[in-house]
Queue: 4 jobs
Job 1
Amino acid sequence: MSAAKILFLCDASDVDIVEKSFANNTHYEPVIETTERVLDYGVQAYLERTIELINKYPSMYDGVVGTHDSSAVFASIIAEKTNKRFAGIQSVINCQNKYISRRIQRRCVSKHTPVFCLALDYLREPSQLNTPFFIKPVRGNISFAAHTIQNPEQLNYYTGRESLDIARYNQYFLDSLSVDPELLDPLNVLTCNNFLCEDLVEGDQVTVDGYISAGRVEIFGMTMAVFLPQSNSFSHHVFPCTFEPELNRRMERAIQKLIPELGLDNSFFNVELRVDQATGTFFILEVNSRIAFQFAKTIESVTGYDPLHLLCDVATGRTPQYDEEKDSHFSLCFNFELHSLTDKWILSTPTQSDFEELRIRFPEVHIRNLVQENAFLSNYKHNPESYRYCILDIPGNSEQEIMDKYKRVVPMLNYEFSEAHEAH
């Protein structure tokens, strides 16, 4: 039987990982289209053209997938308009619009939902939340414009400073939905460029990965975040992660209840939570209607199965096949994020020969470069505290083994920067 052809929508920085994931896979043939290409082409024009061609030649693709917030929007619209399997566009809106998502969470799993309101509603009635509290864009990513707020004046400052950037970022989202006016959910259009205020939540931060296919929810991994000291920026993530069995079961039951209520089906998902192990309580931070692409190789390094293959199983209506994958020789994997705490001018990034040397010496390590030379780190997506430029998956059988590899790998990447004010 010939390989199923999958329209694989992803970021340009994902391409190397996707190509290597499917190099020896006989079940699927990914046809890769990058988000950057879609944006350059024109979002609405790209979607209309792709939908037209797939409807003209239905056998062109056997499935369509997206790996990040932007590509998941593109994939959901294409799938919905061509009768392919993927998350429906309304379910994607229900996840990506954090205000709509919180409303559904409050109805469905209220005890695990922080108190929340829109920023404008808080300014009208500040008694809704105690200070300090947390703000984030109703629709945004990688913690952009996320802050801890001490008073209404501070909230006014950040909303005034950052609202225009949020509106610019979300324009492709609204352009995508404009392919069909029926996709323009009024509540989404009215709120997506707003800020969401919510209670601060304490505890360990984890990401639970899973999928829903034909209404059945399956969970296959949990990763714990480790933060840089005195910071909201990640140092690394640890897989696998587990808690006391009863706490694990309660978390799983809450997720299994919530995912269908969001309207998701035939889709991967990841749920970020804060867990207080001492009290056994947990709160949902957010739900994403897509694979946690950053952890795909993290999970594969330990389990032996590639989540990107499972993603294609779900997209083509096949039962995900865990047992056909290779064995793993590692019990742990750390997913590191390399950051600069200040903006820098990028002088050099790893060459292909640098990558080849690393593959020879550390074949088990996966590297995802996020930036290119002759640009500022601030030109790329970043959070308020730091500028991320590389992601490393380093597996091993102990923390010491992993950290020893990390200390040897990082200098071999040969990143070079200068101070931002020295550029040009």
Job 2
Amino acid sequence: MRTFISIGLLILASIVLGGCGQDPATDLATAAATPKSYVTSEKCATCHLERYDAWKTTLHSKMLQDPKKNPAVILANLDPERIRKELAAIPKLKVPADQLPIPKEEDVVYVVGSQWKQRYMIRNADKKLVLAPIQYNTETDRWVNYNEDKWSTNLWIVQCGGCHATGVNIEKDSFSEPSVGCEACHGPGSQHVAVSPQNLLAKRATIINPAKLTPAQGTEICGSCHIRGKSTMAPKADWPVGYTPGASLTRYFTPTSFAAGNENRHYPNEQSRDHHQQYQDWKLSLHAKEGVSCTSCHDVHETSSIGLTRLQTKFPGSQSCAPCHTVINNNRAHSIHSFANCVGCHMPRIVKSAESGDMHSHTFKAILPQETVRDPRVANSCTACHQHAKEDPAALQLRYDQLAPLPKPQGKAIDTVSLPSP
């Protein structure tokens, strides 16, 4: 009886493993003879179902959604009267609200975003994909303008495509998969799928595993989209055209900065004031110097913690800091605030996605009010908190200096001791 069970299990295993490769006889040399191409996350699910299911719960999988397949992905009614009324209340619109087109639901090809805000992808007169000139802010239930003066000429695939979809090809005006799929972080998977799973070492060699890259290389994968600047390969593109996981991001992208003139996206101290710039913030941090990477705090498709927090962190809030920062000195601000809210000061809400202050800084630096006193254009951690939002930075800094001085050294200098001559 045991023999029959063993044979049955072997047959079942061979069927399952065979399903992971298009041809069980394919070896690495044969697979490598064909250039890598994208196969979509659905194909990855054949072997990596648990990871696929975890990824499906993330915002990455929901970056670009098709309302034709699921009408519920449109978060708010596209009511022209309400939308134009709210747009008209916004000062300095570049195009009058009554002249802006409001798309009908049946015209929306994809929706972009779902948590902080949502934009609506439609086709322009040339049948190219563009983003409609309206944006719905989810937390405040508010409609605002979006590129209202150039929406019809800002081609989505050039401006945003590579970070909203996977396998984007600007020249062919195409992509392999909507949203940020498996191959956005692991690279094109055709060779990986083709190699027989029995040839495990060869199969591994056909795909990028970010966990096996150096922290800097692995973080560049995240950084390829959580960054702002210009492509070096396609000057009009705002994403790193041609970059694939494991390559050097520097060769494909030039980040923006305050020093380079982008004062709307950065504070004078180069910290971010706008969204999807977390990588640039991280580069300014001690975390970057010490090898603490994005995945030290965030999970991408780990089944143990996905869904636990809104931001896909391994632990909620400041509990993410505790595994590494086990000892905290009870001085300076720590002697004032004793409620263990690390992120409140070290990751202040000074970044805007939809509304001002709805995202955290990622430099992991507590910014004292004195920075704002020196330059009023710089945000600080204290006034980013609702309790101190309306207080004068100079007064806050004075109170800080009074409440949080470092203790004076105790004892006295040791007298010089003369040693006897030998």
Job 3
Amino acid sequence: MTELVGNSKLKEIVIVKYAVLVLILLAVGCSQPNDRVLSGVTIFRTKDCPVKNPFLKDSLPDRWRFVKLETSDDCLIGQIQKVVVHKNFIVVQDDKRILVFDSTGAFRNRIGQIGRGPQEQLSMGAFYVDGQGEFIGVYDILRKKIFRYGFDGKLLEKVGYAEEMDFIKDMSLADDQNLVVLFTNAQDYPNEYGVFKAGNYAFRDYALPYRVTGATSCGVAQPSMAKNNGMFLMTSVLNDTLYTWHDGRVDPLYVIQTGKQAFPQKAIDDGGPYDYYPEVVSKAQKKGYSSGIERVWLTEKFGCVEYHIYRGTGSFYMNNQLHEMIFHAVNYLIWDLKTHRAIHYSPAGTWGINLFYPGQKNFCTATENELVSCIPAYEIAGIDRAKMDDDPIYSDPRIREIVDSTEENDNPVIVYYPLDSI
């Protein structure tokens, strides 16, 4: 297994591990069952997974839950960066602040305040939720501290962090003792993740070097992390492998075989550095390679990943310049964490393009037994009412009420999709 080691040795070790894993997969071939386990790694082949919709019963969305977030001058939400549902709280981070709503969508309070006062932050970056400690930790790169707040917005304490926690995009507890951070993807930050002690944010080590780096610190790629109870998973850029944190090390745990070969490192390096991530994705997909796992989510019983299948390219003009656009199909694989039974679906390919279909708007988070989407109000307000009678989804009076009552500048609607069985 791949242990966390110093940065100078890490890339060599991970590449060796990746090469061994590829050889194992080639040896397995396509004749093995879907839940084949080799050296602790479970392999899912999407072509062998039945297509199923686990969210609809009798084609009706009667078990879905809808929460309209309150709209007022105190809580207007901009471009959403992250959503976390914890107990009776919905925590939303946009491009300027962090807001807390209750389970009915009522606004409760802000988290933190930008300013120069002793209790204020100079900057507000990534955040994480400590469910046991019952606090929200917010990253302040300028003060070099994590500000810890109660869910009521009261500042509990400020804790300094190690200098290695620099320019991060996201953070999540892997377990009670370890905090995993996701670094900005750029040449000066070659690693995807760093591991720190959860109590005092002392640095432990780096994990998983980026396979592709950006020309600037704005970042070109963003892996994904998911945690629920004792399970923690991480994706890796342009990689079909899901990794976990276990006993002080990062190990591969799942491989999602989508029918496409892995994108060779040499092909990536020949075109870099890249200005933005879609350049790399386009290159991989056009050449017939996998573009990797995009996102991962965890409930108590199930795991879910999103991956994309290339469908072609188009073009558009912007600022009097011709730009290329990639068309791909969004696909999901959902599996039982205990039995490894898996299903596959694509929301557009299976059920059309209704805005409320599960996965039509990317899932943003998960609860103990639900996947969750955040649907912007301006998209709901733009639904063609004349076509609603032709879609059975709109026979649900709750959805009709949401469509009829939502205005373009309202806050988004949170939709919970129960996932009890597959």
Job 4
Amino acid sequence: MTAAHVLDENDRLRAGVLDSDPLDGCEPYDVTQGERLLRLRRELDKATKAQDWPEVGRLAVELTRATNSQSDTNTHLLDGPAMAEPLPPLSYFVRELALVDGPGAPHLDAGYGYSLKTFSEQDKLLALATGGLVWNAYPVGNPRRVIHVDLEQGARLTTRRYQRLAAARGVSLASLGDRLVVAAMPRLKLTEQDADSWKRLMDGRSLMLVDSLRAATPGADENSSEIRSSLDMLGALSEETGCRALVIHHARKPPPGERNTGGRYSIRGSSAIYDGCDAVYVFSAEESEPVAVKCVKARSHGEEPEALCLVIEDVEIDGDRKGGVRISARGIELLQESRQASQRVKDEKEAHVNSHKVLEAIRDQPGISTTDLRSATGLNGARLAAAKKVLGKRITVKKGAEGVATAYCHYLGKLDREAAE
């Protein structure tokens, strides 16, 4: 409907619609859309009979705007005055993690199986429900009502993990009431057909954990950009309910022998998955290492927080060594130190293996030079030096004849020489 449907051209000219601001004086009404339209039509008729042309023009444009709004409910228009309003400050689940709450696009956690992303997010939900610390480090403020939609683990494993996390925190799960609830293996897909069911799960809640995107989109091609429609639906439902979604997704495993760098390109599937989310976190881990957590996108917050690592440790409860479990955030330096320590252990093992090669070569060729020793063992200078350090006094090195370059000759130490004799 347009203003031309309400006024003829002469009326529009008399009303001054073309020369004045038609929205001057418009005020909001706290009534339903249908009641508002009815009121506007009645007021327009009354103003027309009274030949109050400026009022007719104003009401005509307001009626046009209201009618168009009713006929196109999927489009939300912001006019100049609305955009000029000061924006409220962002609200957070965890500010230090750039984890924004309230309505909006879903957040995403990506990682491969043993990065413990689901376990870590269960601890986050428990912290939000209790008003405690996320990962034993980050405050959340007042308790929230949260929901875990479990499409992967099943009720037993999910419940057992919550029990262990709660025990380590000294929290009674029973005392939480419905602040933390689990929907275990529901028959739901992230499709428009199930939108109402998802909305009911989100109503009255602050955060919904969805584990996982793949399980919630069976049959969908995650390498197609169409996968984003599932995330967009969660975003739309969040705008309606005020409940933010946090979706767990899988990451690509690095090729054998390569480390996972934890960047955005480690996220499995189409780049539309990354594009469709607000904050994106990548979880990565190697055997016997802390879990690295890196924020690779912080759309609403605007700045990606520093990377961190998570340490997961069992807590003894009533004699049960695995009665509880605690997840703690540490600086990323801990991961670097862990990797350096692991490398030292690896180097030491290698040096011990190589020391046997060196000892055997010296036993076979007493007085062997450094060059010949490297050739016989296949070791470079650094590895040969490390192997000789392991051997210590088991070998002796003597300075040979001087020439263009000084030669060093290698012999068995006294004990090994006597044993060989």
